[in-house]
Structures are given as structure tokens and as C-alpha cells.
Amino acid sequence: MTLIADFTGQTALVTGGASGIGRAVARDFARAGARLIVADRDAIRLCETVAELAALTPTPVDGVELDVTDSARCDAVVAQCLAAGGGRLDVLVHSAGIGIERPFLDTTDAEWSRIIDTDLTGTFAINRAAGRVMAEAGYGRIVNLASTAGVAGGTGRAAYGAAKGGVIMLSRVLAVELAAAGVTVNALAPGAIETELVARMHSDTTRKVYRRAIPADRYGTPEEVSAAALFLASREAGYINGHVLAVDGGFLAAGVMHKD
Ligand SMILES: NC(=O)c1ccc[n+]([C@@H]2O[C@H](COP(=O)([O-])OP(=O)(O)OC[C@H]3O[C@@H](n4cnc5c(N)ncnc54)[C@H](O)[C@@H]3O)[C@@H](O)[C@H]2O)c1
Fold first, then answer.
1. What's the rounded Cα separation, in Å, for the pair 54 and 115?
2. Ligand 1 centroid from CA 177, angstroms
């Protein structure tokens, strides 16, 4: 793949970096020369990922265990990034997240809390930790993984859609509050992307329904989302702020479609 930007000399933190979209983003940052810190709650897959990334770059890669629902740990990991990056954290791509497909009327209190705590409150905690040091430094790029489910209503997406809609609004408010400090905050809204999360969430029936609704007539790849993440994280994207970029094969643009 042709890289969109050079991140040599920059420090990047990727959460959820041990799988799927986050792992693809981490690979691209490694190839683009960033000093990389990959954070995930899955310690075993984190080790595998760091080994894979280390083979792609001469620049050191650190793996840190992090559950983003623990805000004190988010602060500690950002402090670790500063130490590793010689006092700077230039980029946060926040990809850690979980999903659920459950009709609203069947959603339990525990399911609701689990999704909101991880996907929305976790975004708050890691964005606040990174935003503070970036604002202090006068430079930063934050890219949050939202979802098309945070933009358009869909069956089974009560908790997930509410959390991702919250991620979008949180990103906009941070963009406004941090703009003067040289920090941009943007959100990505991927559609259906082939990852383990989707393998867990999408039944065969769901897949058929999605395919019909996607003009591109296919699911996307983690690498296609990563390309958008690196663009928004680049120095060159400095005047793009508070934006929600759909990476969805046209899903959100579509109305009635004749596909047969
Ligand atoms: N795959 C899709 O179709 C799709 C679509 C829209 C949005 N997204 C979003 O993109 C992001 C990445 O999704 P993915 O498809 O790569 O999923 P994935 O399951 O492949 O990877 C998610 C990673 O996040 C980690 N994680 C989960 N909870 C965590 C926590 N509390 N703290 C730290 N790490 C945690 C997991 O261990 C995993 O490594 C998620 O926020 C997801 O909601 C995915």
C-alpha cells in the first residue's frame, strides 16, 4: 500500500491495536515510521501483535495492557507514551471497542452498561487523558472509531448505536474545545468491516441484509479504514476538525437501490 503520510519522529498510541481495525492501523503507523504504543486489554494477542509490528520497523514498538474502562489506567498509559516518545504524544487512534446485536426490548441492564462503559465512557477516558497532554503540547491528532450505527438507526443497535452516536458528539465537542490548542479530533464511521467483531455480531441473515444495503456490494477491509485513520492523523489534515468520515462503501449515502 502507498502510505498517505510520514510519521517519522511522531509518537502514536493505538488502542484496541491487537485486533481488526486497530491492528491494521498499528501496522500502517509502524510502516510510516511512528514511535508506536499499542494498547489492548487482550494481553496474549497484544504480544503477538507487538512481535509482528517489530518486524516491520526499526523504531521501537511497545505493547501495553489497558482496559479503557479504567480511567486511571488511561492516564497512566498516556504518561507511559510521553516517556516513550521523549515527552510527546502526537496521535491517538482509539479503536478499542465491543459490539452487540440485541433488540432494544430485550436489552438487559448489564448489556447496556457494558457497551456504554466500554464504547462511550472508555472513549471519554482515553480522549481526556490524551487531550490533556496534547493541548499542553500545542499539537495533537485524535481519531475515534465510531460507526455508521452512530449515524443511522438500525435494528439491534440500541446500546451500540447510542454509544457510537455519543462518540460522534463527544468528538465534535472536543474538536471545538481543543481546536485553539492545535489539537484536531475526528471520528470515523466504518460500515461493515471484515473483523472478528463482525464475525461475532453478524449472523448469516444479517450479512445478507447488509450486503443488499451496501452500494459497493461487499464488506470493507480493516486496511481501508486504516487508510482513512492515517489521513486524519496526519499533519496535513490539520484543517479537518470535528468531522465524521464514513468508510462504508456508500452505505450511509444510499436510499432505494435496484441491485438485481
Ligand atoms: N468491524 C466493523 O464492522 C466496525 C464497524 C464500525 C465500527 N467499528 C468499530 O471499530 C473499532 C474496532 O473494531 P474491530 O472490528 O477492529 O473489532 P475487534 O474485536 O477486531 O478489535 C477490537 C479490539 O479492542 C479490544 N478491546 C475491547 N474492549 C476493550 C477495552 N475495554 N479496553 C481495551 N481494549 C479493548 C479487543 O481486545 C480487540 O483487540 C470498535 O470501536 C468498533 O466498534 C467496527
1. 32
2. 26
Query: At 143, phi and psi to the nearest 5?
Result: -125, 115
Confirm whether pTM is higher than 0.85. yes
Domain membership of residue 258 (yes or no) is no
Domain assignment present for residue 34? The answer is yes
pLDDT tens-digit map of 134-163 = 999 999 999 999 999 999 999 999 999 999
Catalytic residues, which ones? 160
Tell me which amino acid residue 68 is.
V
Number of domains into which the chain is organized: 1
Nearest-angstrom CA–CA distance, 168 and 192:
18
Ligand 1 pocket check for 234: Cβ under 6 Å: no
Model confidence pLDDT, tens digit, residues 223-244: 999 999 999 999 999 999 999 9
Give a yes or no: residue 106 inside a domain. Answer: yes
Tell me how far the alpha carbon of residue 176 lies from the centroid of ligand 1, in angstroms.
Answer: 26
Q: What would the grid cell of residue 148 be? A: 455508521
Is the residue at 3 inside a domain?
Answer: no
Q: Within 13 Å of residue 55, how many CA atoms lie on the same side as its CB?
A: 5
* Any ligand 1 atom below 6 A from CB of 127: no
Cα 95 to ligand 1 centroid, rounded to whole Å: 6
- Coil, helix or strand for 240? coil
Nearest to 99 by CA among 189, 185, 199: 199
Q: What integer pLDDT is reported at residue 161 of this predicted model? A: 98
CATH code of the domain in which 203 resides: 3.40.50.720
Mean pLDDT of 199-206: 89
